[in-house]
Amino acid sequence: MLQFWYSSRCTREIKLVISISVCVLVFLCAEQKQLDPIFTGLSIAIGVLTHVLYEWKSKTTLALNPILRGILDFLPFICLIVLMYFLPNQQRVFLALQCVGFAALGLFIVSIYSRRSKRFDH
């Protein structure tokens, strides 16, 4: 999934539609039960962590152990599952969807910003 997001096949228009869809999903879930700000911040941080790990793995020249590579691949998912474990029990599905949505938005914002074209040559 991340390979498609970072590939040239995923155009700006596709990224915009996906980002808007995730925002709508988060908004609709927040109408039922709002996520606490601490969980929102942690979810966004998990999305940023996903981007940082993906960029580091793609740019590193080190031969990573396959076990370490697997751990790095699943680390954001593990963090997200642990975060969802600590959510309140009432309407946990809506809160979990918001966590996933905010993690995705954190990834989207950082990845789009890091790959944007420069406006001026200085």
With helices defined by DSSP (H or I, 4 residues minimum), what is the helix count? 5
Coarse morphology: globular
Tell me the β content: under 5%
DSSP strand tally: 0
What structural category do the secondary elements indicate?
A: mainly alpha
Provide the low-confidence segments as ranges: none
The level of helicity is: over 70%
How many angstroms does the end-to-end distance come to? Answer: 35 Å
Largest sheet: none
Query: What does the average pLDDT come to?
Result: 89
The ordered H/E elements are HHHHH
Radius of gyration: 16 Å
What does this structure look like?
- Helices cover 75% and strands 0% of the residues.
- It has five helices and no strands.
- The chain is mainly α and 122 residues long.
- α2 (12-32) packs antiparallel against α5 (92-114) and α3 runs antiparallel to α4 (66-85).
